[in-house]
Design brief:
The chain is of the alpha+beta class and about 230 residues long. The protein has 6 helices and 5 strands, in the order ααααααβββββ.
C-alpha cells in the first residue's frame, strides 16, 4: 500500500526570485512582439519611412536600410549606366536625391535663387524663377515644412548620349504658410495666414554629364505621378 506523501513533500518548492523575474521578462517580450506585429505595420507607401537634405552625389552617405528595395525592371535599367559608370550606387543616389528634393522644395518656397541655381538645369531654373517672381509680384512670402520625411523610389537610371539620367518618384506631405511681405495676412476672409496641407506625388528626373569634373546631379524635369 502506497503511503501518502508527507505535508512537506506535497508542497511545491517556490522558484528563486531571480528565475521568476526571468520568466516574467520572457512573457513580457512575447506580448510586446505580438503587439508590434499587430500595431507596428502601416498600409501603403508611407512618406515618413525615409529622410534628410543635400544635393545628390555619388559620395553621399548611404542609408540602405531606409531605401526601398529595387525591382527587377529598375535593376535592369541600371545595368547600362553601371557599365559606363561603375561607381554608381543606387542606394547612395536615392539618399542624395531625397536630400536634394527637400533642399529644392524649401529653396523654391523661400525664393532662394542662389541655393537653387546649382541644383537645377537652366530650363528648370527659368521655370522656378518665374514662379518666384510671380509670388514676389503679389507681395507674398511662403514657408514650407515636411510633415514627414519624404519617400523616394528610384524608377530607372539610364545613359542617354554622354548623360546619365535617373528618374525618382517622390511622395511627401507638406504644410505651406503664405503671408504678405508687408506682414498682412494672406487670407482676407479669415484674417489669418493662408495655411495649406497637401500630399504630393511627383517624378523628378535628374541628370549629370558622364566624365565631368562635377559629379553632382541636377534636376532636369518635374512631372506629376500617381499617389
Amino acid at each position: 500500500m502506497a503511503h501518502p506523501r508527507s505535508r512537506a513533500e506535497s508542497q511545491e518548492v517556490p522558484l528563486p526570485v531571480q528565475f521568476q523575474i526571468v520568466i516574467f521578462a520572457v512573457i513580457a517580450a512575447i506580448v510586446l512582439f505580438q503587439l508590434y506585429n499587430v500595431l507596428g505595420k502601416r498600409v501603403g507607401r508611407q512618406p515618413q519611412e525615409d529622410a534628410k537634405a543635400l544635393p545628390p552625389s555619388p559620395t553621399a552617405t548611404p542609408e540602405a536600410s531606409k531605401t526601398p528595395a529595387l525591382d527587377a525592371a529598375t535593376l535592369a535599367s541600371i545595368a547600362g549606366l553601371k557599365a559606363r559608370d561603375p561607381a554608381f550606387d543606387p542606394n547612395r543616389f536615392v539618399e542624395g536625391a531625397r536630400q536634394a528634393y527637400e533642399t529644392i522644395v524649401r529653396g523654391y518656397a523661400a525664393g532662394d535663387r542662389a541655393a537653387l541655381a546649382p541644383l537645377l538645369t537652366p530650363n528648370v531654373m527659368a521655370s522656378f524663377d518665374a514662379g518666384i517672381t510671380a509670388r514676389e509680384t503679389r507681395g507674398e512670402t511662403e514657408t514650407v515644412e515636411f510633415l514627414f520625411p519624404p519617400r523616394a523610389d528610384l524608377e530607372g537610371a539610364t545613359v542617354q548620349g554622354d548623360k546619365a539620367v535617373a528618374k525618382v518618384r517622390f511622395l511627401a506631405e507638406l504644410r505651406s504658410r503664405v503671408t504678405k511681405a508687408s506682414g498682412e495676412t494672406a487670407d482676407s476672409v479669415t484674417g489669418e495666414p493662408l495655411v495649406e496641407e497637401r500630399r504630393t506625388a511627383e517624378h523628378w528626373t535628374f541628370e549629370r554629364t558622364l566624365g565631368a569634373a562635377d559629379p553632382n546631379w541636377v534636376l532636369a524635369r518635374v512631372e506629376p505621378a500617381n499617389a
